[in-house]
Amino acid sequence: MQERLTQLSCDDFASKLAAKESVPGGGGAAALAGALGAALGSMVGNFTIGKKKYADVQDDIERMCASAEGIRIRLLDLVQKDAEAFEPLSRAYGIPKEDPMRAQVLEEATLAACQAPLEMMRAICEAIDLLEEMGRKGSRMLLSDVGCGAYLCAAALQAASLNIFVNTATLANRETAQRLDCEVDSMLASYVPLANDVAAQVEAAIRRD
User: Which residues form the Cyclodeaminase/cyclohydrolase domain (predicted)?
Assistant: First the structure.
């Protein structure tokens, strides 16, 4: 893969996503959506910094901005890593079934393909925590952006999970598969409701105002 997917324009990335090509796919789209959610958290923070009304929470806002920026960068990097993990998996599926090494190579490639979406989910959970705090402490003028970020992160988290489940379903090592599924289920159970609650609180606040 010669070009980094995140260096494409929005139009080119979307076109590549729509094309009859294996990458980018759902994993890359999930990571990008999560990065956008984290970026919205940063935006809210950057507009809050320096405002007298929020002077008492400025240190918190600066900390959140730094964390959100780190998450955004990690998630953009995972767009590429997810795509790069697909190639060895695709090659493994192409190994003739009579090859005695096929099962081992396929198992290793399948497990490796779980890693990028798993890292996405962990990073997105961090982003949701930050958005929840930003919703409480950031500028009320940008509250809707917190809600947008939360909805994007909820969708990204669920999308990334499917890219793990589709691989754990085929792992021969069921103990490893169950361990990964358990971690994914735990993140979904905790953070999808939290993200939706953040967005619901934003909606209630802006519609009341």
Answer: 9-185
pLDDT digits (tens, 9 = 90+) for 153-172: 999 999 999 999 999 999 99
9-18: pLDDT as tens digits = 999 999 999 9
Longest CA–CA span in the chain (Å) reads 71
Residue from 170, 179, 142, 163 nearest 46 by CA: 142
Sequence-distant (≥ 6) Cβ neighbours of residue 155 within 8 angstroms: 33
Residue 131 identity (one-letter amino acid): L
Domain limits at 53? 23-208
- Which of the four pLDDT bands, split at 50, 70 and 90, describes residue 80? very high
Task: With beta carbons less than 8 A apart as the criterion, state whether 38 and 75 touch.
Answer: yes
CATH of the domain at 113: 1.20.120.680
> Do 33 and 152 meet the contact criterion of CB atoms below 8 Å apart?
yes
5 CB-near residues (< 8 Å, 6+ apart) = 13, 16, 23, 24, 28, 79, 80, 83
Q: What is the pTM of this model?
A: 0.94
